[in-house]
Write a structure and sequence with these properties.
This protein is of the alpha+beta class. 20% of the residues lie in helices and 36% in strands. The protein has a domain of 148 residues: Lipocalin. It is elongated, with a radius of gyration of 46 Å.
């Protein structure tokens, strides 16, 4: 091989070295950690929107099953029928109305009262308080009655007693609307209250009282003519 041919071979090899791609000579790029997926947030409410509210819890209905201290509707209707001397759907309706509003009483009074008023008048009565576990108690009641009432009445009265802590707790003054708030079949129902005790007199007799009697009834252990 001549000198010229050797020189050509050397130059050819040198050119091949310079034509190697630059990318092959560069180091590989640094590896980066894989990106995390974006966090998922709960769906946002549109402006002015409020989360749906749960319906309010339903309150239990008034108790209707007689217990060791309370009287059931059947017991009250039976006692009332014996006391009033007749079987009346009106009495059962009034008792059902009272039970639906106040539940079951833990006592009741059977007695008689007399009163009469045109614009103002007086009411007197006497009877016996009956309970299941605290014995029976003789009671008297009296009080003024002011309202748009008419007619005198001498009526048998059955009074349902609620939340009575002790028998002698009935000896106090009860205030309320002493008018026949509910009348059906010859029977009228009213309501009075004092210190969380509720009295519901159920009356029947000549001249059921009409309108709103604004006054009070005072229960005492002995009869008295003083309504105050």
């Amino acid at each position: 091989m001549t000198f010229a041919s050797r020189l050509a071979a050397v130059l050819s090899a040198a050119l091949m070295c310079w034509t190697v791609p630059a990318s092959a000579q560069q180091p590989p790029p640094p590896a980066y950690p894989a990106q995390q997926p974006p966090p998922v947030y709960p769906a946002q409410q549109p402006p002015g929107a409020y989360p749906a509210q749960q319906p309010p819890a339903a309150y239990p209905p008034p108790q209707r099953q007689a217990g060791p201290e309370t009287f059931g509707p059947d017991e009250l209707v039976s006692a009332g029928h014996k006391f009033f001397g007749n079987v009346s759907r009106g009495l059962a309706s009034v008792i059902e109305r009272a039970v639906s509003q106040w539940g079951l009483p833990n006592g009741y009074v059977l007695g008689e009262e007399g009163s009469g008023a045109f614009v103002a008048g007086l009411r007197y009565g006497e009877g016996t308080l009956y309970t299941k576990n605290a014995g029976d108690l003789r009671v008297y009641w009296q009080g003024p009655s002011v309202g748009f009432d008419w007619g005198g009445d001498g009526a048998r009265t059955m009074t349902l007693v609620y939340n009575l802590p002790a028998t002698n707790a009935i000896y106090q003054r009860f205030v309320g609307i002493d008018g026949s708030a509910y009348i059906v079949g010859g029977f009228g129902m009213t309501a009075l209250t004092a210190n969380n005790i509720v009295l519901v007199p159920i009356r029947s007799g000549i001249g059921l009282r009409l309108g709103a009697n604004v006054g009070y009834l005072k229960y005492t252990p002995r009869a008295t003519w003083n309504p105050f």
